[in-house]
C-alpha cells in the first residue's frame, strides 16, 4: 500500500512540474521496485512453465506405456510380445525417472508434497518377465489392472 501512495505522490508532483532530489530518488526507487516486480513475475512464469514441461514428460512417458500395453495385449507373435514387454519395462523405468525428476523439480521451487503426483501420474507395475514366453494377451483381471494403471 505504501508503494501505491508513493507512486501517486511522485505522479502528482511530476504532473505539477516539481523538481527535487527527493523526487528523483523516490522515482528511481519505484522504477527499480517495478523492475524487481517484473523480474519476479517473469521468474514465477518461467518456474511454472518448467514445472509444466516436467509434468508433460511424465505424461508422454505414461502414454508410451499405454501404447506398449496395447501392443503387448494384441501381439499374436511371441517374439513381438517379448519385445513389447522388454520395451514396456524399459519405458516404465524412464517414466519413473521422469516422475522422480518432477518431484525434485517441485522440491527445488518449494513444493515438497508429492502425494498428489502419485495420484496424478500413476506408473503401472512392471510387466512380469515370465509372461514373455506365455500366451499372447492378458487374463481379463490383468488387462483391467494394467488398463487402469496405464
Which keywords apply here?
mainly alpha; 150 residues
Structure description:
Helix content is 77%, strand content 0%. The chain is an all-alpha fold. Helix 1 (2-15) packs across helix 2 and helix 2 (21-74) runs antiparallel to helix 3. The protein is rod-shaped, with a radius of gyration of 28 Å. It starts with a helix and ends with a helix. Mean pLDDT is 82; it is low at 132-141.
| Structural class determined from secondary elements | mainly alpha
> C-alpha Rg, in Å?
28 Å
The number of helical elements comes to 5
Shape: rod-shaped
Taken as a percent bin, the fraction of beta residues is under 5%
Instruction: Calculate the mean pLDDT score and round it.
Output: 82
* SSE ordering: HHHHH
User: What's the helical proportion of residues?
Assistant: over 70%
End-to-end span in angstroms? 50 Å
| Number of strand elements | 0
Low-pLDDT segments: 132-141
Largest sheet: none
Amino acid at each position: 500500500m505504501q508503494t501505491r501512495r508513493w507512486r501517486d505522490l511522485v505522479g502528482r508532483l511530476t504532473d505539477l512540474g516539481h523538481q527535487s532530489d527527493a523526487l528523483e530518488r523516490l522515482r528511481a526507487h519505484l522504477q527499480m521496485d517495478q523492475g524487481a516486480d517484473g523480474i519476479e513475475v517473469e521468474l514465477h512464469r518461467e518456474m511454472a512453465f518448467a514445472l509444466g514441461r516436467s509434468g508433460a514428460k511424465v505424461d508422454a512417458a505414461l502414454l508410451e506405456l499405454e501404447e506398449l500395453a496395447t501392443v503387448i495385449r494384441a501381439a499374436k507373435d511371441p517374439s513381438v510380445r517379448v519385445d513389447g514387454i522388454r520395451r514396456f519395462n524399459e519405458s516404465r523405468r524412464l517414466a519413473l525417472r521422469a516422475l522422480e525428476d518432477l518431484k525434485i523439480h517441485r522440491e527445488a521451487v518449494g513444493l515438497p508434497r508429492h502425494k498428489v503426483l502419485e495420484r496424478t501420474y500413476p506408473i503401472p507395475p512392471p510387466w512380469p518377465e515370465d509372461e514373455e514366453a506365455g500366451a499372447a494377451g492378458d487374463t481379463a483381471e490383468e488387462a483391467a489392472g494394467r488398463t487402469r494403471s496405464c
